[in-house]
Amino acid sequence: MSEAKFSKLLDYETLKQQFGDADDQATQQNTLKQKPTFDSEERLFDTPDDEKKKPGLTGSRLRSYAFAVLTRKEYAKAELIEKLCLYAEDRDEVLELVEELSRENYQSDQRVAETMLSSQKRKGKGPNQIKIKLKNKKVDTALIAEELKETDWVQQAYALKVKKYGAEVTKDPKLKAKQIRFLMYRGFEMDTIIKAINRKVED
Fold first, then answer.
1. CA-only gyration radius of the chain, Å
2. Mean pLDDT, the chain, whole residue set
3. What are the pLDDT digits (tens) for 4-40?
4. What residues contact residue 42 under an 8 Å CB cut-off, 6+ apart?
5. Which residues, listed in sequence order, are joined to residue 88 by a DSSP beta bridge?
6. Contact 129/120 with Cβ under 8 angstroms?
7. At what angle do helices 173-185 and 153-165 cross, to 10 degrees?
8. 66, exposed or middle or buried, with CB in 10 Å at 0-12, 13-18, 19+?
9. How far apart (Å, rounded) are the C-alpha atoms in residues 164 and 141?
10. What region holds the RecX second three-helical domain (predicted)?
């Protein structure tokens, strides 16, 4: 038998690729036997029904939890409802409780709005940012309408501009555009921004 014919009959590498070594086959079979099926994997990671259940607070326990939550920080009404519903048995009971807490002034959207205004002003944020944050908390911005009007937003924006870019009024269009973007990102209105970046020290 020629070498050419012999190599065709015993092409070991091809046979190995198609069928694998005997040892490899045994290893694969053992692995398949040991590997859990999809269903068994699901059972391994299944959470027992008892662990999925909420605590189911009601009555005095729910009320005590609500007071504990409110002593840590101010919550908007919508926020408090959602937080309590995570642990309460009945959403209707939560709604009734939160309404009572609001009437008794334990919970107050007014205080939440005023606190938000004060903290955001200290952080150098403008009225647009404050309104967005209140909206996210589902708090009516009308609660602080007067405070928003009475705030000198030009002075607020000017102080930020001076802190970051100095007091000089720039004539460079690129730098001016950069200052405008900076103050817009902070939440100031365009007319406020223009006044702030053009304000001179003596003004």
1. 34
2. 80
3. 444 444 454 554 454 444 444 444 444 444 444 434 4
4. none
5. 57
6. yes
7. 120
8. buried
9. 29
10. 108-146
| Tokens coding 112 | 């939440």
Distance CA 140, CA 5 (A): 89
The encoded tokens of residue 10 equal 């015993």
Q: What's the pTM value of the predicted model, to 2 decimals?
A: 0.67
Question: Could you report how far apart the first and last alpha carbons of the chain are, in Å?
Answer: 107
Distance of alpha carbon 106 from alpha carbon 98, whole angstroms: 9
Task: Express each pLDDT in 112-155 by its tens digit.
Answer: 999 999 999 999 999 999 999 999 999 999 999 999 999 999 99
For 88, the 3-state DSSP assignment is strand
Residue 1 pLDDT > 90, yes or no? no
Whether residue 84 contacts residue 63, with contact meaning beta carbons closer than 8 Å, is answered with no
SS3 content of the chain, % helix, strand, coil (to 5): 70, 0, 30
